[in-house]
Specification:
Number of strands: 26
Shape: elongated
Distance between the termini: 37 Å
GO molecular function: magnesium ion binding; phosphatase activity; sucrose-phosphate synthase activity
CATH topology of the largest domain: Rossmann fold
EC number: 2.4.1.14
Number of domains: 3
CATH superfamily of the largest domain: Glycogen Phosphorylase B
Largest sheet: 8 strands, mixed
Radius of gyration: 28 Å
Helix content: 25-40%
Number of helices: 27
Keywords: Glycosyltransferase, Hydrolase, Transferase
CATH architecture of the largest domain: 3-Layer(aba) Sandwich
Structural class: alpha/beta
Family: Belongs to the glycosyltransferase 1 family.
Protein name: sucrose-phosphate synthase
């Protein structure tokens, strides 16, 4: 395996961009198709191309989800698509093949992460950097960054806490928000990502102060404003050819006086884009109607009734307002446009000496504004968000209160009715975009910001063990100790016999929250054979048979940004939180007794640690034992490290768990079983996950049941599900809007426990 060597020649740099949801391809982007296929898609595609053009970058891979759905183009089912020299889209399988809205992807992100890592391991180079886009990609990026030992860079694009505030203000109930949008899981992922990211790239200063400032892991020193670029070869002033474009004829068929200037509004049909208020302002101003025509380009549609309910509502309101104000002949609202025609729309409006307007309630950046500016089109834009910086840099337009119809009308008339002022605004915009918003300038600033991070990149951990690979071992069983193997001596004896009968093909591993000495003692007491791999202390230690050789490479890997004394000093002052005895502490595990009657909630403790810039994993078991371990340490991460070192596919790893501490072992590509013990309610949220089997039997009998279920020593796979007709994209969208198809999000921080059966000792570990 070739690692990314930052001391080698610069072109060896391999950058991976992650953007999981939506539809990505290298041509004719379907921007505005739905809420998931907006400006973020274009931003990430253009970023990949701009970075790949640099001489100090060898390869840029954009990882997104592979979608094989008869309702959409087959382009999205192509595993690898080149999008320019040194840049390509890599599509990763995750979950069902059909297109899903982002709110329904959360249960499939661990599979995405596992498959992405497998792809990288099989390639000829590993990345020097992971750059995630949006919360779902951040969730994946945290895991890939931890496993590869490379920096994580993140761009949020849209933030859950901001959206939740807005929805609450609009009257949507908290439980509806969480169910429909999986908001708790999204915000938890954002907090985890902000804690792990070495750099957060934003578009505006306001985004840092007013949006990221809402998060516990708000660290402005790790945040940098690098505005997106625009393609100056594509977006340019009109040259006359736009007058012959088919899209111009499409607009003209709506308009009685086509020579009037055009007021152009271009966005997806989203309530936050506030197009209805623009139509009301136009409809209530006879002067504005005499001066200009209005063009509304709001996504693509064949049949309004087939669109998701949110877009359907927005477009219906627009059509009703056009009818109310009798604006026929003065407003154009085409049903279709291609991505290649967007630049022509700006040019057509500029040639008419018109104006571009973005009346959104809030606009994190405003990519359409710099596209309009690059086309020589003055702008009028909301005073909330990115337009503030754009107009400050370019001096090419007017900011407006998006809820004030008179303010909108006044600004539009001021631009449209002053010919010399219009020319100055257009010229200022062209100059400002070249200076501040070219993609080449963005790539320069990007690589300059990454310089200090890339210098610190270390090769991923490799176990320095002089051990012979176990011949023919192409599968493995990993099990918790107390919750799975203890409690039923008869089924344990059967399990041990099955292991011994299949030692030639299967590796045996134990993953426990216990210390090494405690685990060995309990195994000796119950006659459990010494495993090939022993993962102890909640994934912070790994030992190999036959001499219990410790993996020092793993130890160095998880030591990244681990500050146990700061954790101890911060939590010891809390009511209801008391340090456990020294025998329960270790280099990578800080342990406390937790009194739920007096202690802060786990959410509050997590927030406190985040605010202190401590990125860790919290584990609460049995409601009374609280452990804090490094962010790179867990049973699941340790298992994946071992599987990678030994060349065992995750799809051939059977993971048996009985409590919340085992959850991250079981998510993703591993085969898994939840045995029927009294603590498996902590894992009940996994019940609908395809590759997780809920056994009817407890303890080792449950593992034996799963061995039969997966035909583990033969086929070793999830048994085929009964044939079911997949839901159409429309049905998925409609069910998502009603909240019926969304999964209930996890509550607060991860409740995983690293502790075992409390009957075995006063304080199990």
């Amino acid at each position: 395996m070739i690692a990314c060597d930052m001391n080698a020649e610069a072109p060896s740099r391999h950058i991976v961009l992650l953007s999981v949801h939506g539809l990505f391809r290298g041509h004719n982007l379907e921007l505005g198709r739905d809420a998931d296929t907006g400006g973020q898609i274009l931003y990430v595609i253009e970023l990949a191309r701009a970075l790949a053009k640099r001489p100090d970058v060898g390869q840029v891979d954009l990882f997104t989800r592979l979608v094989d759905d008869p309702n959409i183009s087959p382009d999205y089912a192509v595993p690898i698509e080149p999008i320019g020299d040194g840049a390509r889209i890599v599509r990763i399988e995750a979950g069902p093949p059909e297109y899903l809205p982002k709110e329904q992807l959360w249960d499939h992100l661990d599979t995405f992460a596992d498959n992405a890592l497998s792809f990288l391991r099989e390639s000829d180079r590993l990345p020097c950097l992971i750059h995630s886009h949006y919360a779902d990609a951040g969730y994946v990026g945290v895991r890939l960054s931890a496993q590869l030992g490379v920096p994580l860079v993140h761009t949020g694009h849209s933030l859950g806490r901001v959206k939740r505030r807005r929805l609450l203000a609009s009257g949507v109930k908290q439980d509806v928000i969480d169910t429909r949008y999986n908001m708790t899981r999204r915000i938890n992922a954002e907090e985890e990502t902000l804690g792990a990211a070495s750099l957060v790239i934003t578009s505006t200063t306001q985004e840092i102060e007013e949006q990221y400032g809402l998060y516990d892991h708000y660290q402005p020193e790790r945040m940098q404003v690098i505005p997106p670029g625009t393609d100056l070869e594509r977006f340019r002033p009109p040259d006359g050819r736009e007058q012959k474009a088919p899209i111009r004829n499409e607009l003209l068929r709506f308009l009685r006086e086509p020579k009037k200037p055009l007021i152009l509004a271009l966005s997806r049909p989203d309530e936050r884009k506030n197009i209805a208020t623009l139509v009301e302002a136009y409809g209530e101003s006879p002067e504005l109607q005499r001066t200009a025509n209005l063009v509304i380009v709001a996504g693509n549609r064949d049949d309004l009734r087939d669109m998701d309910s949110g877009a359907q509502t927005v477009l219906t309101d627009i059509l009703l307002l056009i009818d109310l104000y009798d604006l026929y002949g003065r407003v154009a609202y085409p049903k279709h446009h291609s991505a290649d025609e967007v630049a022509l729309l700006y040019q057509i409006a500029a040639a008419s000496r018109g104006v571009f307007i973005n009346p959104a309630l809030t606009e994190p950046f405003g990519l359409t504004l710099i596209e309009a500016a690059a086309s020589g089109l003055p702008i009028v834009a909301t005073e909330d968000g990115g337009p503030i910086d754009i107009i400050d840099h370019c001096r090419n337009g007017i900011l407006i209160d998006p809820l004030d119809k008179q303010d909108i009308t006044k600004a539009l008339l001021k631009v449209l009715c002053d010919a010399s002022g219009w020319r100055k605004l257009a010229q200022n915009g062209l100059a400002g975009v070249r200076k501040h918003y070219a993609w080449s300038a963005h790539a320069d600033s990007y690589m300059e910001a990454l310089g200090p991070l890339l210098e610190k990149v270390q090769p991923p951990p490799q176990a320095p063990l002089s051990r012979r690979r176990i011949l023919y071992h192409d599968r493995a069983i990993f099990t918790d100790l107390d919750q799975n193997l203890l409690g039923d001596p008869d089924s344990l004896a059967d399990f041990i016999r099955i292991l011994r009968d299949n030692r030639k093909c299967s590796t045996f591993g134990i993953a426990t929250g216990r210390r090494l000495d405690s685990a060995l003692a309990i195994m000796r007491r119950y006659g459990i054979p010494r495993p090939d791999v022993l993962i102890t202390a909640l994934g912070t230690e790994i030992y190999y048979a036959p001499q219990l050789t410790a993996d020092g490479s793993w130890t160095r890997h998880i030591d990244n940004l681990w500050y146990p004394r700061r954790v101890r000093d911060l939590l010891v002052e809390l009511p209801g939180v008391k340090p456990q005895q020294k025998s329960e502490q270790s280099r990578f595990k800080v342990s406390f007794f937790y009194d739920p009657e007096h202690a802060p909630s786990l959410d509050d403790i997590g927030s406190l640690l985040h605010q202190a810039d401590l990125n860790v994993h919290l584990n609460l078991s049995f409601g009374q034992f609280l452990d804090v371990v490094p962010a790179r340490a867990s049973k699941g991460l340790a298992l994946r490290y071992v599987a990678d070192q030994w060349g065992i596919p995750l799809e051939h790893c059977l993971c048996a768990g009985g409590s919340g501490a085992d959850e991250d072992m079981m998510r993703g590509n591993t085969l898994a079983v939840v045995v029927a013990n009294r603590h498996n309610e902590e894992l009940s949220k996994l019940i609908d996950t395809e590759s997780i089997y809920f056994a009817q039997e407890p303890f080792a009998a449950g593992i034996l049941e799963a061995i039969d279920h997966y035909d583990f020593f033969a086929a070793c796979q999830v048994p085929p599900a009964p044939d079911a007709e997949p839901a159409s994209l429309t049905e998925l969208s409609q069910s998502d809007e009603s909240g019926a198809a969304s999964q209930t999000p996890a509550d607060g921080d991860d409740q995983s426990s690293g502790h075992e059966d409390e009957e075995e000792s006063a304080r199990p570990s």
